[in-house]
# Entry
Amino acid sequence: MAPHTEQLTRPAVRLRGLTRSFEGRTVLDGVDLDLPAGQFTALLGHSGSGKSTLLRAIAGIDHGVAGSGTLTAPERVSVVFQDSRLLPWRRVLPNVLLGLDGEDAEERGRAALAEVGLGGRERAWPTELSGGEQQRAALARSLVREPELLLADEPFGALDALTRIKMHALLRRLWERHRPSVLLVTHDVDEAIVLADRVLVLEDGRIGLDLTVDRDGPHAHGGYRTQLLKALGVSEDAP
Ligand SMILES: Nc1ncnc2c1ncn2[C@@H]1O[C@H](COP(=O)(O)OP(=O)(O)OP(=O)(O)O)[C@@H](O)[C@H]1O
Ligand SMILES: [Mg+2]
# Structure
């Protein structure tokens, strides 16, 4: 399903002049960024380039950025990390429902678990789930909150290649169904192209490249790949 044009004109996130330094070292240097509602965006960049720092700032969980730049973000924001962060002393369903109230909360939690293929595992302990299943439970936990913005920091980074491919399909399907704005931080150029409609490269504290991935256009995956690797300063011929 193609994104609705009128929906995409309304920015979900509007960031202007965000600067973040640690001990005098500037990591983010006046970042400007608009994320349209309902858009799937991936964020690439070298290790240490500030991807997680930017994501934390947008999530509103970095109090150190206060007063630097301006940020407008939706009310309902969910964050998914590389590890599932499920509480080991709670079963899967209570983990998904954590902090959620309302009469229909349990029903919604069960529905979210079914959506990620974990129907029937509601009473399992987190340690009884595989890594991929734990990440699916984490996705269910974020989905059940019906986020307008889903921030994901290398959510598949710790998974094996096969599980990662399945998770790609699942995330894309969930996005098509629920249409949150997504900002996915990843190291993986191919993952970015496969999943996102727009790929950003963070470089020297700013967005260095802003690439639109046109799935129906003439450019093949390889063309985007070459462009992104070049922006990242990596040669495809490198051993
Ligand atoms: N709380 C902190 N205190 C001091 N330095 C920090 C802090 N958080 C991040 N940094 C520094 O800021 C820089 C950017 O970190 P960040 O975690 O955003 O990078 P990243 O692009 O997410 O890297 P990776 O791909 O390895 O996850 C790093 O040099 C890091 O050491
Ligand atoms: Mg990071």
Remarks:
- The radius of gyration is 18 Å.
- The pocket of adenosine-5'-triphosphate (ligand 1) is lined by residues 22, 27, 45, 47-53, 187 (CB under 6 Å).
- Helices lie at 5-8, 51-59, 92-97, 105-115, 131-143, 161-178, 189-195, 221-231.
